[in-house]
Design goal:
The complex is a heterodimer of chains A (about 260) and B (about 160). Chain A is built from 7 helices and 9 strands. With about 260 residues, chain A is of the alpha+beta class. The relative contact order of chain A is 0.10. Chain A folds into 2 domains: about 100 residues, Phosphorylase Kinase, domain 1 (2-Layer Sandwich), CATH 3.30.200.20; about 150 residues, Transferase(Phosphotransferase) domain 1 (Transferase(Phosphotransferase), domain 1, Orthogonal Bundle). Helices cover about 50% and strands about 15% of the residues of chain A. Chain B is an alpha+beta fold. Chain B has one domain: PF0523-like. Helix content of chain B is about 40%, strand content about 15%. Chain B is built from 7 helices and 5 strands, in the order ββαβαααβαβαα. In chain B, a hairpin with an 8-residue loop joins strand 1 and strand 2. The radius of gyration of chain B is 14 Å and the shape is globular. The N and C termini of chain B lie far apart (about 40 Å). The chains are: A alpha+beta (about 260), B alpha+beta (about 160). Chains A and B meet through strand 4 of A and helix 2 of B. The structure holds adenosine monophosphate. Adenosine monophosphate binds next to strand 1 and strand 3 of chain A. Chain A: InterPro entries: Bud32 (IPR022495), Kinase-like_dom_sf (IPR011009), Prot_kinase_dom (IPR000719), Tyr_kinase_AS (IPR008266). Chain A: One of its GO terms (biological process) is tRNA threonylcarbamoyladenosine metabolic process. Chain A: It catalyses: L-seryl-[protein] + ATP = O-phospho-L-seryl-[protein] + ADP + H(+); L-threonyl-[protein] + ATP = O-phospho-L-threonyl-[protein] + ADP + H(+). Chain A: Keywords: Activator, ATP-binding, Chromosome, Cytoplasm, Hydrolase, Kinase, Nucleotide-binding, Nucleus, Phosphoprotein, Serine/threonine-protein kinase, Telomere, Transcription, Transcription regulation, Transferase, tRNA processing.
Chain lengths: ~260, ~160
């Protein structure tokens, strides 16, 4: 299955574009490549993300094409809009081929020191939970507040992520501090619904709780501190909206707990 | 002679096509060119609407995607380029915003040659009365109207 999908992508992109598979999900395969789709003589160490939605055999071909086109275009348009939001960090979209299901974007992130892997938030927190490190380090605090601020900016501007896990938050070291970027807007939407926002916050809280349970309370408090800062910067309106989101977040949490009690 | 200034490129996904982009300054016959733009074998673009090579090349890439995998929405690959520069799919609007205007002094000519197309780049110098200069981002930035581009592309700051 996997090799078949890779071959399909290679057949469309042609022999000039070398692909390396880095992730394979239900919906899409993610590759990296050193080839820019249209800019000549790029930087040697630069690489790009190619996200490919392969055709699904179990769907009727014309329905499948229409769905692929709609989802690819939808994600591209959303990413393009988000890139223009001041202060919000998302990958820059480079190209889109909606007919074949390709999105090209800027590669973000780096390797963490000491073999902790790719610099997403999950691995970063693992790194700080190691024996020789302090999980409550100022660096962790400041990074999580910045992550919270990114989510605050996203929500304040009327967007939701839809799959806000700690793997979909990528860190880049800029001038000695970690700057968070939000990636994978495949389930994202233009949405001002408090429910969608509450669910975003809940999904991230669960992700932190399941992988870093001993420090989760403190971590989630820092995330919410950053999140609230953005809303509180907007006076009384901001504070009122913040309260709405936080109330709904609580409700979603209670529902989640009930669901897990039932089984 | 002036062709050393020209930017020739092949996009990795579309190796059967050759793209050439030229920038002309001090153009004196924009009005004349405009009257026969439909017959010319290249796309003529108002340089005021372009701020970088990236902007041009991303539209060219998109035009090649459209003609290769979708259906051509305009008469030629060249008009498809103009359409792809525009954020809207309205062809008239794309031509109005990115196409040649009578008062154009700086213009960009884009030619995309497919496997069966005749090379007509040589005609550029005869048709366009102006000075061909190197296509550099720096030069494009000097000629572009940033306010106009922001307005057209819906990027308010
Ligand atoms: N812009 C990007 N920069 C770096 N890695 C990415 C990027 N987009 C996706 N990835 C990686 O690919 C995985 C799956 O991507 P996605 O299907 O978009 O969730 C992510 O968890 C990341 O590890």
């Amino acid at each position: 299955m996997s090799q078949e999908v890779v071959n399909k992508a290679l057949a469309i992109l042609g022999p000039n574009i070398e692909l390396k598979t880095i992730a394979q999900g239900a919906e899409a395969v993610v590759f990296t490549t050193k080839v820019h789709p249209y800019l000549p003589n790029g930087n040697e160490d630069k690489k790009y993300i190619v996200k490919y939605r392969p055709p699904k055999r179990y769907r009727h071909p014309s329905i499948d094409q229409a769905l692929t086109k709609r989802r690819t275009l939808g994600e591209s348009r959303l990413l393009a809009k988000l890139y223009l939001v001041k202060g919000l960090n998302v990958p820059k979209i480079i190209a889109c081929d909606a007919y074949n299901g390709f999105i090209w974007e800027e590669f973000l992130g780096e390797e963490l020191p000491d073999g902790y892997g790719f610099s997403n938030l999950k691995n970063f927190l693992w790194m700080y939970s190691a024996k020789d490190r302090n999980p409550h380090d100022e660096v962790v605090k400041n990074t999580l507040i910045r992550v919270g601020r990114q989510i605050g900016l996203l929500h304040w501007n009327g967007y939701c992520h839809g799959d806000l896990t700690s793997s979909n938050i990528v860190l880049e070291s800029v001038d000695g501090s970690w700057q968070p970027f939000l990636i994978d807007f495949g389930l994202g939407s233009i949405s001002d619904s408090v429910e969608d926002k509450g669910v975003d916050l809940y999904v991230l809280e669960r992700a932190i709780l399941s992988t870093h349970s001993s420090y989760a309370d403190q971590y989630n408090a820092w995330l919410l501190e950053g999140f609230s800062q953005i809303y509180n910067d907007h006076g009384k309106t901001g504070q009122a909206k913040l309260q709405e989101v936080l109330n709904r977040f609580n409700e979603v949490r209670l529902r989640g707990r009930k669901r897990s009690m039932i089984g | 002679m002036s062709s050393i200034n020209r930017c020739y490129t092949v996009l990795p996904q579309f190796p059967d096509y050759t793209v050439s982009i030229s920038l002309f300054e001090d153009v004196s016959n924009a009005q004349e060119l405009r009257s026969k733009v439909a017959e010319l074998p290249f796309a003529l673009i108002d340089a005021r609407a372009i701020c970088s090579r990236e902007q041009l090349l991303s539209a060219i890439y998109r035009a090649l995607v459209e003609v290769s995998y979708n259906k051509r929405r305009t008469k030629s690959l060249h008009s498809e380029c103009l359409l792809c520069l525009s954020p809207s799919s309205n062809i008239g609007e794309a031509f109005k915003n990115f196409g040649l205007k009578d008062d154009c002094k700086t213009l960009i000519a884009v030619q995309i040659l497919g496997p069966n197309d005749q090379n007509a780049v040589e005609r550029l110098g005869e048709e366009i009365h102006g000075r061909e200069v190197e296509l550099l981002d720096q030069t494009l930035q000097q000629h572009c109207d940033e306010t106009f581009i922001r307005k057209v592309c819906g990027h308010q700051r």
